[in-house]
Every structure is written in structure tokens, then in C-alpha cells.
């Protein structure tokens, strides 16, 4: 992740396995969604805890963007699609 701690062992295996891939999903600040909306969508998209979703939403709010997922290209694109469902601004890149 860009500036957050690595997922804890108690979090989903999916989050743990994506650390070595060259692909990432980046979420950008858009000022048009509440923290609750963003956090709910992050939980849905990356299957993280509420605590981790709050860390990501705060990073996006304060820094303008955050890498919210790393993994295979197809999974990064799937994560981006879930985030885009509510109009969040995302980018998938290497």
C-alpha cells in the first residue's frame, strides 16, 4: 500500500496475497461522497475491515489518493468497478 500498514493476518487472505503484484487500484478524492459511503464501498470492493476502510478513506481525504488494492490486473479492475459503482474516481495501473 502507498502509505498504510500491511493488512493484519486476521484480515482476508485476498488482501494478503496481493502484496507482490505489479498492479494496483488507486482511489482518488472527489469531495462528493461521505466517509461512510466510501468506507462501505471499500469493504465491499476489497473485503477489508471497517478499521482498514477508515484508514484508506482518511488517506484519500488528506493526501488526495491512496492505493487501496494490489494484486493481479483482473482483480484490480474488478475492485475498481465496484468502487466506480457509486461514482468514486479510480485508476488501475502498474
Brief summary of the model shown:
It is built from four helices and three strands; from the N terminus they run αβααβαβ. It has 94 residues and is an alpha+beta fold. The protein starts with 12 loop residues before the first helix and ends with a strand.
What features would you highlight for this structure?
single chain; 94 residues; alpha+beta; three-stranded antiparallel beta sheet; 46% helix; globular; disordered N terminus
Protein described:
It contains 4 helices and 3 strands, in the order H-E-H-H-E-H-E. With 94 residues, it is α+β, with helices and mostly antiparallel strands. A 3-stranded antiparallel beta sheet has the order 2-1-3. Helix 2 (35-46) packs across helix 3 (50-63) and helix 2 (35-46) runs antiparallel to helix 4 (73-84). It starts with 12 loop residues before the first helix and ends with a strand.
Number of strands: 3
Structural class by sheet pairing and helices: alpha+beta
Please compute the radius of gyration using only Cα atoms: 12 Å
How far apart are the termini?
Answer: 13 Å
Shape: globular
Q: Give me the number of helical elements.
A: 4
Instruction: Report the sheet with the most strands, covering strand number, pairing sense and barrel closure.
Output: 3 strands, antiparallel
Provide the low-confidence segments as ranges: 1-18
Q: Assign a percent range to the helix content.
A: 40-55%
Average predicted confidence as pLDDT = 85
Task: Output the strand order for the largest sheet.
Answer: 2-1-3
Order of helical and strand elements: HEHHEHE
Q: What is the percentage of strand-forming residues?
A: 15-25%
Amino acid at each position: 500500500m502507498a502509505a498504510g500498514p500491511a493488512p493484519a493476518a486476521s484480515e482476508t487472505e485476498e488482501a494478503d496475497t496481493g502484496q507482490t503484484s505489479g498492479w494496483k487500484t488507486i482511489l482518488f478524492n472527489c469531495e462528493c461522497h461521505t466517509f461512510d459511503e466510501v468506507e462501505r464501498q471499500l469493504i465491499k470492493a476489497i473485503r477489508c475491515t471497517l478499521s482498514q476502510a477508515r484508514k484508506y478513506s482518511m488517506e484519500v481525504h488528506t493526501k488526495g489518493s491512496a492505493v487501496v488494492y494490489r494484486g493481479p490486473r483482473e482483480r484490480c479492475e474488478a475492485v475498481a468497478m465496484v468502487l466506480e459503482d457509486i461514482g468514486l474516481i479510480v485508476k488501475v495501473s502498474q
